[in-house]
UniProtKB/TrEMBL annotation:
The keyword Flavoprotein does not apply. The keyword Nucleotide-binding applies. Keywords: Amino-acid transport, ATP-binding, Nucleotide-binding, Transport. InterPro entries: AAA+_ATPase, ABC_branched_ATPase_LivF/BraG, ABC_transporter-like_ATP-bd, ABC_transporter-like_CS, BCAA_Transport_ATP-bd_LivF, P-loop_NTPase. One of its GO terms (biological process) is L-amino acid transport. PANTHER family: HIGH-AFFINITY BRANCHED-CHAIN AMINO ACID TRANSPORT ATP-BINDING PROTEIN LIVF (PTHR43820). It comes from Desulfotruncus arcticus DSM 17038. GO terms for molecular function: ATP binding; ATP hydrolysis activity; branched-chain amino acid transmembrane transporter activity. This is Amino acid/amide ABC transporter ATP-binding protein 2, HAAT family (TC 3.A.1.4.-).
Length: 235
């Protein structure tokens, strides 16, 4: 579904991504792992058009995403859950969710989308009229995922969904991602520092180190390799 071919990305004169290539197949969960500053967020932002690549190509279902502004990505079936949730704190949960359905096609299905999303996240349902800024971290992450789902994406990009959450909540969030993949056929690219957790739900994974993909394999293979666990996954 998503094909990233040899992208090079700079912040000013400083190169941060070096020939990064990755693929995400239809209905796959793919994890992009790596330590702080490896370039994971930069990769996601480049896919969504928030950052420009110097060279390389990115395509979705065979169609190149070249020169497409970030706001149009959503109409091509891509939604992103950003690091740190980035909710609108002074708006209610319901209003935050509706922002996810700003695209006309998603807006037309907003009622139906809201119903299945709230069924999946009863906690969000309970908090619909609460200001998003007053939610707990875990609740905010659920709202951030719900908001992305309101656009009815085919490909969901998640940036560090486990960040700052208690272990039981992390598990809950990852269970939900897996459920979305199995039951709704959602394709997922998840960026994580919590490699152990991500590899438990991912089919495949890539490891980024200093802006380069240094490893890619099936999640099971990565989890079971002693060398890989020590050298790249900090396990
Ligand atoms: P983390 O897990 O800490 O978020 P990451 O793997 O997502 O790390 P990036 O945020 O993609 O890493 O950052 C990759 C590199 O690019 C880092 O060295 C970072 O300092 C640098 N960088 C990120 N954003 C900018 C920016 N706006 N201007 C300049 N350099 C940046």
């Amino acid at each position: 579904m998503l094909q990233v071919d040899s992208i090079n990305v700079y912040y000013g004169d400083v190169q941060v991504l070096y020939n990064v290539s990755l693929q995400v197949g239809c209905q796959e969960i793919v994890a992009l792992l790596g330590s702080n500053g490896a370039g994971k967020t930069t990769t996601l932002k480049t896919i969504t058009g928030l950052l420009k690549k110097q060279t390389g190509n990115i395509s979705l279902q065979g169609k190149t995403l070249e020169k497409m502004p970030a706001y149009q990505m959503v109409s091509h079936g891509i939604a992103m859950v950003p690091e740190g949730r980035k909710l609108f704190p002074n708006m209610t949960v319901r209003e935050n969710l509706m922002i996810g359905a700003f695209h006309p096609e998603a807006f037309a299905r907003a009622k139906e989308s809201m119903a299945w999303i709230l069924d999946m996240f009863p906690r969000v349902n309970e908090r619909l009229n609460q200001l998003a800024g007053t939610l707990s971290g875990g609740e905010q992450q659920m709202v951030a995922i719900s908001r992305a789902l309101m656009s009815r994406p085919r490909l969901l990009l998640l940036d560090e969904p486990s960040l700052g959450l208690a272990p039981n909540l992390v598990e809950q969030i990852f269970d939900t991602i897996q459920e979305l993949n199995i039951k709704q056929g959602l394709t997922v690219l998840v960026v994580e520092q919590n490699a152990q957790m991500a590899l438990q739900i991912a089919h495949r994974a890539y490891v980024l180190e200093n802006g380069e993909i240094v490893l890619s394999d099936n999640a099971d293979q990565l989890l079971n390799s002693e060398k890989v666990r020590e050298a790249y996954l900090g396990l």
